[in-house]
User: What shape does this take?
Amino acid sequence: MKSRVTERGQITIPKSLRERLGIQAGQVMEFTEEEGRIVLQRQVREHTVDQLFGILAMGQGTDALMGQLRGPVPSLPQDEAEEAASPTPDDGRQGLPAGGEE
Assistant: This one.
């Protein structure tokens, strides 16, 4: 495939390549030179979460950190704890027959 350079130094990326590579209008591209060749790549923008991941070296696990932030978890009396852990008889679907169908 060929493309002509305009007076302003612009080139047109052939439509078939743009479609195949997912290049869209307005997308930022990065030019580099490697061994006498021009290499064109989509500029990969790092996600904000990826930029922040791991910057806080806490030296402890998540559970320990949450314990420090929230304080101790209040314990329930044994019978309340068992009741909270067991599913409700209708499995939370009030007003529906046992099969779950209307």
